[in-house]
Specification:
The chain is mainly alpha-helical. The protein has 15 helices and no strands. Helix 4 runs antiparallel to helix 8.
Length: about 290
């Protein structure tokens, strides 16, 4: 049954995801401040983990779920976001957006395979608009970007993991948000460290102490004011509106990301980007308004 706050939740996901489209800005700032190779991402997982641990210890003492029993959610979604965060540091912004946001395609495939759900025509309209928008923006000469660098592969793999995580979150409606958050940060940190070891040449050496101290205020602000609140919305919503619709709504990140990249970097923004962004916007809302309440 459709959630009674379906529209409100959908708009919240759309706007929160839009803010994630601006996430490349602090990531680049951390990199320019000396936290190269994704070490800033490691800190953004570690700081919330430290903040949440006293609550989790209290829950453990009281015999309540802590989130450690949800490894797949943490590994998939937390790991997917970690890959997405680091991909900005190793490839062009536009390549990150297109490769990561194949996520609605992965989610629909997972729903067909694991839930035996036959996609409704509304999903078909949403996917068509989204993929058409992506094609218009990035399909230069009739081709879509193919992964060629570490950043490309991180973006593609991140989208795949987040799609799998959205499926698992859809099944976790009975879990409280603190458990979901702790799973996200705990297992996501493990994935972040693992990828830093696998791609050690790209990630580089451990930053100097001076870099850590100068960037610490930004890290704390980013971790506690943005990372935790935005993930509360993202982790809580798939079980309320469905993983498929969720993966369509998060396409708003491309709109915000594309426009911000055009205004604040040397990324291209022209007629293709305007038309493609409009189609992505329509894709995000098509399924919301085409689906009848029941």
């Amino acid at each position: 049954m459709r959630h009674k706050y379906h529209l409100t939740i959908s708009i919240a996901v759309f706007l929160t995801s839009g803010l994630w489209g601006l996430y490349w800005i602090p990531q680049r700032a951390l990199q320019n401040g000396g936290l190269t190779g994704g070490w800033g991402t490691v800190a953004q997982y570690l700081i919330p983990l430290i903040v949440l641990t006293p609550l989790i210890v209290w829950k453990f003492i009281k015999g309540k779920p802590t989130g450690l029993h949800l490894p797949l959610i943490g590994l998939f979604f937390g790991g997917g976001i970690a890959c997405y965060a680091n991909s900005f540091l190793f490839t062009d912004l536009m390549r990150v957006f297109i490769l990561f946001y194949l996520m609605p395609v992965w989610t629909t495939i997972f729903e067909i395979i694991f839930f035996k759900q036959k996609p409704k025509w509304q999903r078909g309209v949403s996917l068509f608009l989204a993929l058409l928008g992506l094609w218009i923006v990035f399909g230069q000469d009739g081709n879509l970007p193919i992964p060629v660098s570490v950043g490309d592969w991180l973006a593609l793999f991140g989208g795949f993991l987040c799609a799998a995580g959205a499926i698992k979150l859809e099944e976790a409606s009975s879990e409280d948000i603190s458990s979901l958050l702790y799973s996200f940060f705990f297992y996501g940190l493990l994935v972040t460290i693992f990828t830093s070891l696998i791609f050690s040449d790209a990630f580089g050496p451990f930053p100097y102490i001076k870099s850590w101290t100068s960037m610490l205020p930004l890290l704390i602000l980013l971790s506690l004011v943005f990372f935790i609140p935005s993930n509360i919305v993202i982790l809580w919503s798939p079980s309320r509106i469905g993983a498929g619709l969720f993966s369509i709504l998060v396409l708003s990140e491309i709109i915000f990301g594309t426009v911000s990249a055009a205004l604040l970097s040397n990324e291209k923004f022209g007629f293709r980007e305007a038309v493609g962004g409009t189609l992505m916007f329509l894709a995000g809302f098509a399924e919301i308004f085409l689906t009848k309440k029941n």
